[in-house]
Structures are given as structure tokens and as C-alpha cells.
Amino acid sequence: MRIQTDIDALVLRPWREDDKPSLVRHGNNREIWRNLTNMFPHPYTAADADDWIGIANGSGDAIHLAIVHEGEAIGGVGIIPDDDIHRHNGQFGYWIGEAHWGKGFATAAARAIVRHAFAGPRFQRLEAEVFAWNPGSMRVLEKLGFTREGVHRKSVFKDDQFVDCVMYALLREDVASGS
Ligand SMILES: CC(C)(COP(=O)(O)OP(=O)(O)OC[C@H]1O[C@@H](n2cnc3c(N)ncnc32)[C@H](O)[C@@H]1OP(=O)(O)O)[C@@H](O)C(=O)NCCC(=O)NCCS
Fold it and tell me: Which end of the chain lies in a sparser environment, N or C, as judged by fewer CB atoms within 10 Å?
């Protein structure tokens, strides 16, 4: 699988064994860890990269792709489906190596995977929970048309503190209607 984004040099593709050094280089960053679930470790070691590449390629219905810039994996984007009555929801997440922040890469990668996700029948709704201290990520979601649905007060414990979490969601019909 290879998904082209709206930026020529930026594509999404499955994680590969040879991404390990760049995954550690870009992933070993407290500022990234601080904004993700604890599934993303800190410090980020070569053993963590090994584990991740196995998980990313063996997660059933979940989609986990590397964000690749000029051949180098510089971040990740993924959608983890919920189950039972929530089975048509997907938990949406992404990160970009700090050296590449502010270039529109997260927006382009996220837009491409949203398009991919809604091209199939599984997802009706994509959700992203953003910590209150992360306005950059809120901006990415707003550029993609996600709606800010509400605040889950102190629902997250991260970096030794409770933090509010802002729920953003995008419905299939939001994209179809171009909102
Ligand atoms: C959040 C993150 C993915 C953004 O990546 P990026 O490639 O720099 O994002 P983009 O360049 O596509 O867009 C960022 C937008 O946020 C804006 N922004 C950045 N910092 C901001 C801030 N402190 N306040 C308000 N807006 C901010 C930028 O100006 C830009 O908006 P614009 O295009 O209107 O100017 C990246 O910083 C990251 O990986 N952070 C750590 C992990 C993370 O937060 N993941 C998301 C978890 S919900």
C-alpha cells in the first residue's frame, strides 16, 4: 500500500524494518511523547522501534502507516477501530518529527488517511482526543473539517498531571458535504 498526499514528496506506506533508525531519531522526543498515549514510549529505543514495527504490521483492522518524506520515515499516522456498538468509529492519531513541524506535513498526511479511511465501508466516524495544551494539533483537525464536540475534563493523566481532553470528530458525511 502506498498513499500519495497532496505534498509531492510526502507519502504514507507501511512501516518497514529499515525505518528503525529514523523512527528512533524522530520518535525519541519528549514533546511528541507528551501529546500521545503511553503506547508511544519515552525515551524511544531501538527495541521500542522493533516492537512498534511488529505491532504496526500485525494489528488486524487497525491502520498504522509511516509518514515518509523523500524516502525517510519522519512520523506516523493511524486509525484504530473501536468495537461492539462503536465498531464504525476509529481513533485517529498522528505525529511528525520536530525537525519537520510547521510545513503542513501533519495536515497533508492526516487528510490523505481520512480520504483512504472513508473510501472503505468500515468507518462512519473518526475521533481524535487532543490534550488541552496542544493547540497545534487542534488546528490540524480544524483544517481537516473535524468538529470540536466538547471537553472531557481531566480525563487524561499525562506527564504527572491531569489534563482536559478535547474531543474532535469527523463524520463520513462531513467530508462528502465538504465542510
Ligand atoms: C501536532 C503536530 C502533529 C503538528 O504537525 P505539523 O506538521 O507541524 O502540522 P501542520 O504544519 O500540518 O499544521 C500545524 C498548524 O498548527 C498551527 N500551530 C502550531 N502551533 C500552534 C500553536 N501553539 N497555537 C496555535 N496554532 C499552532 C500552525 O500554524 C499550523 O496551522 P496553519 O497551517 O494554519 O498555519 C506535531 O506538532 C506533532 O507531532 N506533535 C506531537 C504529537 C501530537 O501532538 N500528535 C497529535 C496528538 S492529538
Answer: N
